[in-house]
User: What shape does this take?
Amino acid sequence: MATHYRDSSSFFGADSPLRAGWPQFAARNEQQALAARVEQALRQRESAALEAPTGTGKTLAYLIPALLHSERVIVSVGNRTLQDHLWWGEYQKLRTLVPGLRRLSVLKGCENYICRWRLEDGLQAGVPWVAQHWQIIAATLQQAGNGEVTSLPLPEDQWPAARQWLTLQVDQCRGQSCSQFESCYFQRARAQAQQADVLLINHTLLLSDQRLFEKGMGALLPLADAVIVDEAHQLPDLLVRLNTETIDGYRLQRWIRQVRSLCGSEVLLFPLLTSGLQQLASAWEQIQRQVQQHERDALLSIQSASLTPLLKLLFLLDNQIRQLPVSQLHLAPVRATLDQWRHMLSHAIADQQVIHADVSGTWLRLVAGRVHSPFATLDQAQATWIFLSATLAVEGSFDYFKRMLDVPTLEAQAFAGHLDYQRQALLWIPEHLPEPAAEDFMPRWVEQVLAVAQRLQGGVLMLFSSFDAVQAAQRFIPADVGRRVLVHLPDSNRQALLEAFRQDANAILLATGSFWEGIDVAGGALRCIAIDKLPFTPPDDVLALAWKHLAAEQGKQVFQDYMVPQAVMRLRQGVGRLLRSADDRGVVLLGDTRVLRKSYGYRFRASLPPMAWASGLADVATFLREQGIGGERLEESDPAQ
Ligand code: SF4
Assistant: This one.
């Protein structure tokens, strides 16, 4: 059944059918304009980057045009959770309200489907978890299900173990050389996805499409007429991470120990393997010595051809490891790592790439960048690409985004939002605070945030750049703070934490990582965002190493050309959590005074939403009172005094 809607305009006007599904729905010019622009791009086949601020209603503004369009469209969102949200949320409501819309199909990553090869290996190796759950697994395999690991009738707390023993990461998939290829759930799902009119995927799948194609699996992108990428600000980092390969000294030493432990007490029975491991350790030390003679903190360029002996050694080791009398399952992790290293060196040598070596920490790391970017040929591509996000620009310019995706001529447009930051929000950077690296920074920062919290009705979200910082801050919150304190730790259930924060409406949540973006807490549950420092990527992160490599290749400066723009985009994401609708209001606290004092600080200041600035706690208290969200302890003194 086809729908009678010819375009999306009637969905966003005063008589919208969306009112029945979204009681809060209000016609907004900004949302209508964005939907019209997406529709125009689809019809006229014009690729574009579109920035639309928080609160625009972006998801419906691209999903409805995609479902009304007549050609094949791929929609890519940030991750599996967002796929589920869109599928169970907006899409199901739309289907009910407008039955004639095109169907949306979903494809997830390899690690979501039961891998028959891994299962068989687990059975042969007698893995206890697999043996224990075999009846349930076998019954599920006999049904005509989609093979998603979450379709197993297991309690939720068993899903991590199920993923560990029944699934693979896409890089470990054997592709066409797999004995189970024909009956593989993931391959079947990919084949079905190739037939879909509108397909929902995630960014990892989007960026690994070419690599899967090289392994003999059907590619998705060549079949699409249009690709809509939501949360597109994630692409520059993801692209660099997925296209960067490293051999890391710490991991190499650990790998050598792992292989030795596989030999157990019979190490003398494998003389070739033992001497190969020794040769590998010495070859590595030799490269490290060579690099250490080089200027500190600078990358040493190595012609990849000179690493051919190292590559040969890796092949020899693989040959020997395969002969160990140990199950495939136990060999798989060490062979997978070895495969990655061989892959990196073989490609670099074949393409005559320069490899870079770095010993700015204790360990030597070798880094190489792959050349493939799905966007590089966007100009000649048949498909229309539409990149959407609330934060694509840095200082009002799209240059960083376009440079990182290698799309210099892409058209870009920023849409105005309906949120009034001048009226709804206030920014305070307490100038008296020391810089974040100072020893007394954290206690003073926490004290300052609590001083604001005392004067505020509503929740406070404290964002940090690491779990260490979260835990350090937690130590300075007194037990009698008078609010519920929620702490995001590495093993926390993110969803449960977020729900507790929403429900409490007066809690303090200390969080990091994924809480910087994509969380939606409306109203009084979130009245203050407190960010301790500018979210620069730590120097030991693979991203920082990859930037050094890119900078050397492209004649750029790591700090100015990669680090600052990326931190600006992340800061914009963090600040964007505060206001979700025209009724929201609150305060942004930023503890990093470098934004005022360092020369690069203006780039952050110029990129933030246009909020009024407070000059002290008294201004904050006044603002809160005027907004009707002030607390009771307004008369108390400022800890800065
Ligand atoms: S093709 Fe890949 S995912 Fe499928 S069964 Fe084989 S190894 Fe597992």
